[in-house]
Amino acid sequence: MPLPKAELHLHIEGTLEPELAFDLAARNGVKLRYADTEELREAYRFEDLQSFLNLYYELMTVLRTERDFEDLANAYLTRAAAQGVRHAEIFFDPQAHLARGLDMRTVVEGLWRALGRSEENHGVSTRLILCFLRDESADSALETLEAARPYLDRITGIGLDSAEVGHPPAKFRQVYETAAGLGLRRVAHAGEEGPPEYITQSLDLLGIERVDHGLRCMEDPELVERLVRERVPLTLCPLSNVRLRTVDTLADHPLPAMLDAGLLCTVNSDDPAYFGGYADDNFRAVRESLGLTEERLRELARNSFLASFLEDDEERRARYLAEVDAYVF
Ligand SMILES: [Zn+2]
After folding, report:
1. Cα–Cα distance list, 184 to 141, 145, 178, 201 (Å)
2. How far apart are CA 191 and CA 256, in angstroms?
3. CA of 64 to the centre of ligand 1 (A)
4. Residue of 13, 17, 192, 193 with catalytic role
5. Residue 11 annotated as lining a ligand binding site
6. What angle do CA 21, 24, 28 make, to 5 degrees?
7. Where on this chain does Zn(2+) bind (predicted)?
8. Measured distance CA(81)–CA(221) in Å, rounded
9. What DSSP state is assigned to residue 248?
10. How far apart are CA 306 and CA 166, in angstroms?
């Protein structure tokens, strides 16, 4: 049995495996540019963020109905459960779907069909986090939040993702303020390929409670000190960093130095269908490539539950932490 863990950085659209993409394309009469799953899997060998995003948005077009989103989420939850995930806080990108004519209801209710029954069906508790695409306008983000209002009982928080460079957090100040007023939790991708200042801005201007990625904080010792002092969690995604060339090889990943610095790090899979591994694959990869000890791995698992948005269910958090403490490697 794998180490029990929470997954806090996971884009549901990034869990679309080639086989499911072809199944959904067939069901919906969508023609893909690829002859078969082998050829599509070859296309998953991109070199940088932009080439990944191009494929990511292209394949999303197979998602059309509530049932498609339900099937996508169930496929992820099945894999996640097998990898020791006990709690998943799942990102989705509504703008990408609204832009191609779907409505918010199809996306949220479709995902909810799986998430609402995830505990019974998969033994995984869940939260849903609505992400804004940072390469879209601030007005578009506000419109998206408005469209989500009828579904806020399904949505725990907001996030910010997609191409980081050139799209500073300051652009989204107003939508984060509005979301805070609605009682939503706040996270944002920052310091993945963008500079450490984007992390500082996200904290100061957007009021974020967790940093997604954030590994470039290591370039700014004062920022590291602040993140340690304020116990701000970071959701790191090691296999994603290698595939998108944020680090050259896994052996170069700053995770050990970040843990040594006292940062509250977690390990996650980001877009696992595209980046070569789900949650425990990432744990095993850092264990092998970075030589992390069992106690370090246990610390990462503990951190994942400490960083979870489980303030409304502390009993559950305590139960998960006890599972981690009792785990025998
Ligand atoms: Zn991400």
Report:
1. 15, 11, 9, 19
2. 17
3. 22
4. 192
5. yes
6. 135
7. 9, 11, 189, 270
8. 37
9. S
10. 32
d(CA 91, CA 189) in angstroms, rounded, equals 11
In single-letter form, the type of residue at position 312 comes to D
Q: Which domains does the chain have, with CATH numbers?
A: 5-326 (3.20.20.140)
Rounded Cα gap, residues 209 and 314, in angstroms: 17
Smallest CA-to-CA distance from 115 within 90, 134, 85 is with 90
23-50 pLDDT, tens digit each: 999 999 999 999 999 999 999 888 778 8
- Per-residue pLDDT tens digits for 240-267: 999 998 999 999 999 999 999 999 999 9
> How many angstroms does the Cα of residue 278 sit away from the middle of ligand 1?
13
Distance 91 CA to ligand 1 centre (A): 8
pTM assigned to the model: 0.97
According to DSSP, the β-strands at 157-161 and 210-213 are unpaired
Q: What is the pLDDT of residue 53?
A: 87
Quote the tokens at residue 250: 């896994």
Is 189 assigned a ligand-binding role in the annotation? Answer: yes
Ligand 1 centre and the CA of 33: distance in Å? Answer: 25
How far apart are the C-alpha atoms of 252 and 275, rounded to whole Å?
17
* Structural tokens at position 21: 């993409």
Active site residue 19: no
